[in-house]
Structure formats: C-alpha cells, structure tokens
Amino acid sequence: MGTDNPLANIDSAEVAVQSDDVFNSISTSQSYLPRLQLMTANSDKCKSGEFPINHYARVHDSDYRDLTNTVDILVVAWRPLAIETTDDGGVLTYFDPKVVDNKPTGDFARVQAIADKSGMNGCMYGPQYLVWVPSEQEFMTFLMASKTARRASKSVKARMHEAGTLGSQEIKGKEFTWWGPTCQACTTPFEMPSEEEVKKQMQTFLNPPEPEVEKAEEAGEGAREQ
User: Fold this and answer.
1) pTM for this model (two decimals)
2) Please, which residues have CB within 8 angstroms of residue 29's CB and are 6 or more apart in sequence?
3) Which of 62, 115, 199, 214 has a Cα at 20 to 30 A from 220?
C-alpha cells in the first residue's frame, strides 16, 4: 500500500459508466415544484433587506429569485392544503378537508381550527394553485394561506384554465396597513406549455399522497400576513 493517490493518473472518461449529462439530470432534478410567493414586509427576507417588498419570488430550497411586482400566469388547477409544522422542523401536509354530518373533521379540520386562532402557531391552510409561469418556463405552486390571501383567492380561481396577472394592493385596517395579492385578466399573449406537460403536472398535483411530509422550507411563509 502506498501513500500516492491512485486516482491521480486515471482518466475518468475512460472508465466512466455514466456521462456528466446523466449526473446533471439526477443531481438537479426536483421532487417538488418551486413555489410562487408574494414577499410582503412581514417576510424575513424583506425585513433583512435581502428581497424587494411586494415583489413575487420564485422559491426553491433556499433560492429566492425576484420575479418583480407582477407575474403573468396560467391557472391550471387548485387543491385544498393544510400545513402543520412538527416539533422537529418537518412539515405535514393535508389535502382532504373531510366533512361528516355537515361538520369538518380529521387532520385538515384540526389544523384549520388551530390556524384560525391568532398568533403564529405553525399551522396554515388555504387553496393551493398549480400555475404555469411563462417568464420562467416552468410550473409552480402558489399557496394562498393568509387571511388576506384566502379572501383574494377567488380572483385567482376565477381565471381557472385562463391567463392572469398577479399583482398586489394595499389594504388598510383600523390599526394596521398591509399588502395582499391580486389577480386580473392577462392581456399580453405568452407561450403556453404543451398539453402533455399540463396533463402530467395536473395528474401529480391533483393526486398527492396523504399525509405528505415536506421540509420546512418547502411550505414557505404564506400565513404571516393579515
């Protein structure tokens, strides 16, 4: 046995079984879609000055990409989503708001009840949309989980299977002022995904496992607004 590195003089290309292209395809593949998020003044990134206030972000893992203050989207589908943060930093997601005898029941209802209480409690719920973002040429999820976002979610649902433009507006309460999302008809044509791509993403999005455990950063900060 010597101390010289036995790999020093080996040309890996001569013995490699898989190409760099294969490595890149598996090392960069994502098991979940990036999310679209309106970054308000309550967002940690905005508080620290790292991200512009009231701009939308394309978020994946710890990467936040500025998509400016308006974003064109194609609204593809929606599903109910409740999120519960566990003590070890994981996130449980529930997609089935069960109703028995006209009363909500099950984990979704439990998380919803906790989230409706005031204060940060590790729980949130609301409609989550599957959208196509032409500026990024990719599908994203858009969770509307704050009180303000849930009220505004009807404007997104009204654009189902159509193009819309996300923006934001100032909302004034008795004591506080904050910003929330808006959605209007998109008047600018953009490149659409193929029918095959849409069907594939819809199939996955509308048939999630129940419950699903995610990493904390996948859930986002969607319930911090009013």
Assistant:
1) 0.80
2) none
3) 199
More confident position, 60 or 9 = 60
Distances (CA, A) of 146 to 34, 164, 179, 220, 224: 19, 20, 11, 12, 6
Residues 94, 223 contacting (CB under 8 angstroms): no
Q: Residue 192 has what DSSP assignment?
A: P
Rounded CA-CA distance 157/155 in Å is 6
* H/E segment holding residue 99: strand 99-100
Which residues are CB-neighbours of 24 under 8 A, at least 6 positions away? none
Task: Specify whether the CB–CB gap between 72 and 188 falls below 8 A.
Answer: yes
CA distances from 206 to 77, 119, 170, 224 (A): 8, 31, 32, 26
- Give the three-state DSSP class for 147: helix
Average pLDDT, the chain: 84
* Contacts (Cβ under 8 Å, ≥6 apart) of 23: none
Q: Give the whole-angstrom CA distance, residue 133 versus residue 112.
A: 29
Place of tokens 């099950």: 106
Q: How far is Cα 28 from Cα 95, in angstroms, rounded to an integer?
A: 27
